[in-house]
Design a protein that fits this description.
The protein has 20 helices and 20 strands. It is of the alpha/beta class. The protein has three domains: 122 residues, OB fold (Dihydrolipoamide Acetyltransferase, E2P) (Beta Barrel); 205 residues, inorganic pyrophosphatase (n-terminal core); 106 residues, Roll (Diaminopimelate Epimerase, Chain A, domain 1), CATH 3.10.310. Strand 19 and strand 20 form a beta hairpin. The two termini are 24 Å apart.
């Protein structure tokens, strides 16, 4: 539920004449024209390219640094009959990247095996356990996926044993200066973050990098890699990378394969989650499938997910999918306990620039989710740490105005290990240093984030009147799918809506009709039931919403899916 009074309402505005020009040039409504302008789409040619993400337009994988060196080493491994070990990670991006690399190498004729670290026993990424596993299995080459860019010791250890390491990763490298990085001494490092120029490849997920690697292996022949689009799409969605450029193409093509259910493991997972065979939307990835995929790595063995995603056996897939479903339910229970304990602990601290909470016994598999929930609720960078044997390990989530990886870099003197992105990271430190770290990171965040940036914002794509909200507009919006980071589902806003027949339905949902200038439209606010009294006393409200089509009793009707509401200061129609 969003009480709109606690948020900044930021409305995108463009010169009316220009909006009208784009509207006429692209043959779309003015409201949709504003949405396109917000996304940098201003010509019919740009619109056509964006709405038709063709797999033939994927960037050349050999743009990625060290790609040719890495591919040549794979060809050498094949000619020598060498065994290769893939070292992945336990989250959804990591296991899909592992699955892509595993299946791609085997298809190419490589004797490949994989290793996924245990979150609690081994920690994040490529480490000593992966090197030992390679030695045990007689591998002469290690390929990391979705990890490795900061694995200095593990790479040195492997090299000393005569094992080459190819790193494929997308995480931030250790920065020495602008454009200069401290990198492991690997045979090759394929990471789009090392590109010296802006490219469609810059925002790839770990699975996206693995997909590109296999593309390079098969010399850009899409027919040879088409079967991996579904896995790459899951990793792309899971890692919340911008859904533009190559990522948009990958997600669009991958969703078609996920819908078709041709991969036994994905079909079984959809069945276990109760998704109807003929119904699949983009939003079901992050809210239904990905949590189940992540559950194994959070509280059990993520290798089960790789088995699920690579098996051809429907019987095996069904059993593994059922197991993931059960693990996800257990994960939710554990998460709620840790979340409630963390919320209670917040009472002991003054909330400054950042929130740092730590306790013994917190399950490492859920601290990232809890950090995300608290960061969203309190709108502060949040660090949730689990203490064991004198060491605190955990996860961090940030707000848009604060680069959490850069913040951790400034604290590296007190940290044992850290890595991640601008908005999410993992870290470890001695438990005796937690207070010092809390003081340091809170000060850094307080100095770099303004008071205005600590107020969450609603970014509204276009201000509209009720007459603008039509089925035609909703059909135009659908052409922008798949939605995701960088291409969010358009959010519209309007002022001065008269409230009619407000009531609470289902599990605390607020249902009512909103009327303006003689036209009323059905609306629903999920989990907005607590705002019923405020709505009844407001007279008129402003609303931020996604317009959707509600099919009922054989007809199709416009419905507003409310995202935020507030008492209206105006009843004159569209937002100013």
């Amino acid at each position: 539920m969003l009480d709109g009074t606690t948020y900044k309402w930021l409305v995108n505005k463009t010169n009316a004449e220009y909006v009208d020009y784009v509207s006429r040039a692209a043959s779309v409504s003015p409201a949709f024209a504003q949405v396109l302008i917000n996304r940098g789409i201003k010509t019919p040619e740009q619109l056509s390219s964006f709405l038709n993400p063709d797999i033939g337009k994927l960037s050349d994988p050999f743009e990625l640094p060290d790609m040719k060196t890495a591919i040549d080493r794979i060809r050498e491994a094949k000619s020598r009959g060498e065994r290769v070990l893939i070292c992945g990670d336990y989250d959804a991006d990591g296991v899909t990247a592992t699955s892509i690399m595993m299946e791609g190498l085997k298809k190419f004729g490589i004797d490949a095996d994989y290793f996924i670290p245990d979150r609690i026993a081994h920690g994040y990424g490529f480490g000593t356990a992966g090197v030992e596993k390679a030695k045990e299995r007689g591998a002469r080459l290690i390929i990391t996926v979705d990890c490795g860019i900061t694995s200095f010791d593990a790479v040195s250890q492997a090299t000393a044993l005569g094992i080459d390491v190819i790193i494929t990763d997308h995480h931030e490298p250790v920065r020495k200066a602008i454009g200069e990085y401290e990198l492991p001494d690997a045979f090759a490092i394929v990471n789009p973050k090392l590109l010296a120029y802006n490219s469609e490849l810059s925002n790839l997920s770990g699975a996206g990098v693995a997909f590109k690697f296999v593309m390079g292996l098969f010399e850009n022949n899409i027919d040879d890699v088409h079967e991996f689009f579904d896995l790459a799409a899951i990793g792309t969605s899971a890692d919340v990378v911008p859904v533009t450029g190559d990522n948009r193409i990958i997600l669009k093509a991958g969703l078609k394969l996920i819908q078709s259910g041709q991969r036994a493991g994905i079909k079984a997972l959809k069945d276990a989650a109760g998704i109807k065979p003929d119904f699949f939307k983009t939003t079901l990835l992050p809210y239904v499938l990905i949590p189940r995929i992540n559950a194994a790595g959070r509280i059990a063995d993520a290798a089960d997910v790789v088995r699920l995603l690579t098996t051809d056996s429907e019987i095996e897939a069904e059993g593994l999918a059922k197991r993931l479903n059960e693990l996800n339910s257990k994960r939710q229970e554990i998460e709620e306990v840790v979340y409630n304990e963390a919320k209670g602990m917040l009472q002991k601290f003054e909330i400054g620039g950042a929130i740092v909470l730590a306790s013994e016994g917190w399950h490492l598999g859920v601290v990232g989710i809890v950090a995300s929930r608290i960061a969203e609720e309190y709108y502060r960078p949040t660090f949730i740490l689990s203490i064991e044997n004198g060491t605190a390990k955990g996860s961090a989530r940030s707000i848009p105005a604060f680069d959490i990886h850069e913040g951790l870099t400034k604290c590296k003197g007190v940290l044992k290990r850290f890595g991640g992105h601008k908005q999410a990271a993992g870290l470890s430190l001695l438990s005796e240093d937690i207070s010092r770290f809390r003081e340091m990171i809170s000060g850094i965040a307080a100095d770099s984030v303004s008071d205005d940036d600590r107020v969450p914002a609603l970014h509204i794509d276009a201000a509209v009147s009720m007459s603008d909200v039509t089925i035609d507009l909703i059909n135009e919006i659908a052409r922008l799918e798949p939605f995701g980071c960088g291409n969010e589902e358009p959010l519209f806003g309007g002022k001065g809506f008269e409230v009619m027949q407000p009531r609470v339905v289902g599990k605390n949902h607020l249902k009512m009709r909103l009327k303006q200038n003689g036209r009323s439209v059905d609306s629903i606010g999920f989990d907005f039931g607590g705002l019923l009294d405020a709505v009844e006393n407001a007279g008129a409200i402003d609303a931020a919403f996604h317009p959707i089509i509600n099919e009922w009793d054989g007809g199709k009707y416009v419905q507003l899916n409310l995202k935020a509401i507030r008492p209206s200061k105006s009843n004159n129609g569209a937002m100013e």
